[in-house]
Design brief:
Helix content is 36%, strand content 23%. The chain is α+β, with helices and mostly antiparallel strands. It folds into 3 domains: 75 residues, Rossmann fold (3-Layer(aba) Sandwich), CATH 3.40.50; 70 residues, Dna Ligase, domain 1 (2-Layer Sandwich); 173 residues, ATP-grasp fold, B domain (D-amino Acid Aminotransferase, Chain A, domain 1, 2-Layer Sandwich). A hairpin with a 5-residue loop joins β11 and β12. α3 crosses α5 and α5 packs across α6.
């Protein structure tokens, strides 16, 4: 029996369940990956973990060897996970490959306040999701990230490090040019070669400027596609990925901001384009390369544009901009030339049905 483990209820995981339903594959919606390791009866012929959050990837990295012993098949390597989950190592690795990224410093006791700094800066934890922990939340004064306006503000945070033991980074803020915030999304083989990819652009972020994309659209730009494909292959990403870049208003160059080696919020766009990326991952891990090739070759080449909407985030954005309708991009929302993908009632019904399944062989 093939079992897919998905740890949390979120828009990404519901999209994964929808992908699996299309292939009529058995799946188990399981609240906690840790229970699988401790459950002696959780003995299946094929086990597939589907990470939908950074915390999932952290768990996989910490238990990589144990999960491998239990028969889980990985594509994403320890190295890729380690670099992607430690923001300082990630930016340092990019710089070593001459890939443009925001200038980043580790704020530790070796940090020199008299460095040639340029303000404003942003201060944040090295590890994703760490700001939610009680210790980090107290240090960050209940904020996910902090904008540093001058040297005096930076000294305040530097002095706080004397009573705190965790990795904090300070980073240059790249001012984005217009709406030029892109993601290169897709799938790479175990050697880091991109097998399938597509481009998206964030039209609306919530919160604005530095938030999550709540309205994204596919982009048909061969030059940009080739450039970002080259970056992904230089990094050496394996498996499912999303690479986020922005174009700088200052120098008109592209800067890499983030890498997600996992399913991400807009992965259902791939399914709309005719490539079920969850199944692509499943068949590649099984070594069924004929089906992998067939999935990619049978993609829908006629669809040129798709608009993806995070319904809750988009609603929040529209309420906030109630008297500024131009910011809501209603033209894109109602365009007959686009296909809307988001959380629908049928997706929630699917989750409620699958969540009742028991963990049995």
């Amino acid at each position: 029996m093939t079992v897919f483990f998905i740890s949390k209820i979120n828009p990404t995981s519901i999209g994964v369940l929808s992908d699996l339903k299309k292939a009529q594959l058995n799946s188990v919606f399981f609240e906690d990956f840790k229970k699988y390791i401790s459950d002696k009866e959780a003995d299946f012929d094929n086990v597939f973990f589907v990470p939908t959050t950074d915390q999932d990837n952290i768990f996989i990295l910490e238990n990589y060897d144990k999960l491998s012993e239990l028969g889980h098949k990985f594509i994403t390597s320890k190295k890729t996970l380690s670099i992607a989950l430690d923001k300082y190592l990630f930016y340092k690795d990019l710089s070593s490959k001459n890939i443009l990224t925001p200038t980043t410093w580790l704020l530790d006791k070796k940090f020199i306040l008299k460095k040639d700094l340029f303000f404003p800066l942003i201060l944040k934890p090295c590890f994703p999701g760490e700001w939610k922990t009680a210790e980090m939340s107290a240090f960050m004064e209940n904020r996910k990230a902090v904008f540093i306006k001058n040297i005096l503000e930076l000294k305040h945070w530097y002095n706080k490090l004397e009573t705190f033991n965790s990795k904090i980074i300070v980073q240059e803020i790249i001012e984005q040019k217009n709406d030029e915030n892109y993601s290169f999304c897709g799938y790479s083989d175990e050697n880091g070669k991109v097998l399938w990819g597509f481009l998206t652009q964030k039209l609306i972020q919530y919160p604005e400027g530095f938030g999550t994309g709540v309205m994204c659209t596919t982009v048909d730009n061969l030059f940009l596609y080739s450039k970002l494909q080259k970056i992904v292959e230089e990094i050496g990403v394996e498996g499912i990925f999303e690479l986020e870049v922005i174009r700088s208003k200052k120098d008109d160059k592209l800067y890499v901001i983030e890498l997600n080696p996992r399913h991400w919020g807009q992965h259902s766009i791939s399914t709309k384009l005719g490539v079920n990326i969850t199944l692509l991952d499943y068949y590649y891990k099984r070594g069924d390369f004929k089906k992998v090739k067939k999935i990619i070759e049978n993609r829908n080449k006629d669809i040129k544009k798709i608009v993806w909407i995070d319904t809750q985030g988009y609603l929040n954005h529209c309420i906030k901009n109630l008297f500024l309708p131009s910011r809501c991009k209603f033209k894109e929302f109602f365009s007959s030339k686009t296909k809307i993908s988001g959380l629908l009632f049928d997706d929630f019904k699917l989750y409620l049905k699958l969540n009742k399944k028991k963990l049995v062989k």
